[in-house]
TrEMBL record:
Pfam families: AHSA1. This is SRPBCC family protein. InterPro entries: ASHA1/2-like_C, START-like_dom_sf. Residues 17-138 form the Activator of Hsp90 ATPase homologue 1/2-like C-terminal domain. It comes from the Bacteria. Belongs to the AHA1 family. CDD domains: SRPBCC_CalC_Aha1-like_4. SUPFAM superfamilies: Bet v1-like.
Length: 140
């Protein structure tokens, strides 16, 4: 299993302006619609206090009820429509940038890997969630 302390980066370009992408990324009523890596998972609950020092939490669950977990953390940086940085509950860091050009927004997420799962599995899982976000955001 490949392990590393090097951060992992994923990205996607959303065919929406940054203000719209920001709203869909951060509003709990939207998070519950897109925050899943596959069709057999969902996010039944989300809360978000979007400010430096604010907390967020999203419950991610298998639709068959076999497993669920809360994904959350505390915001370190919030620059509306541009950047979010947070520390996950296990101490790992995440940075997300939102860069708008020509009516579309590039979302880039960089996160510290955890030590249990292979790097490629982590990258693929986070990318699948971002791809699901893209599909949802572009339908709005």
């Amino acid at each position: 299993m490949e392990t590393t302390n090097q951060a992992i980066t994923i990205s996607s370009t959303i065919q929406q302006p940054a203000a719209k992408v920001w709203e869909i990324w951060n509003a709990p009523e939207h998070i519950t619609q897109w925050c899943a890596a596959s069709d057999d998972w969902h996010a039944p609950k989300a809360s978000n206090d979007l400010r430096k020092g604010g907390a967020f939490s999203t419950t991610m669950a298998a639709k068959d009820g076999s497993f669920s977990f809360d994904f959350g953390g505390i915001y370190d940086v919030v620059v509306p429509h541009q950047q979010i940085a947070y520390t996950m509950s296990d101490g790992r860091k995440v940075q997300i940038t939102f860069t708008e050009a020509n009516g579309q927004t590039e979302v880039v997420e960089t996160f510290d890997p955890e030590g249990t799962n292979p790097i490629e599995m982590q990258r693929a899982g986070w990318q699948a969630i971002l791809d699901n976000f893209k599909r949802y955001a572009e339908s709005k």
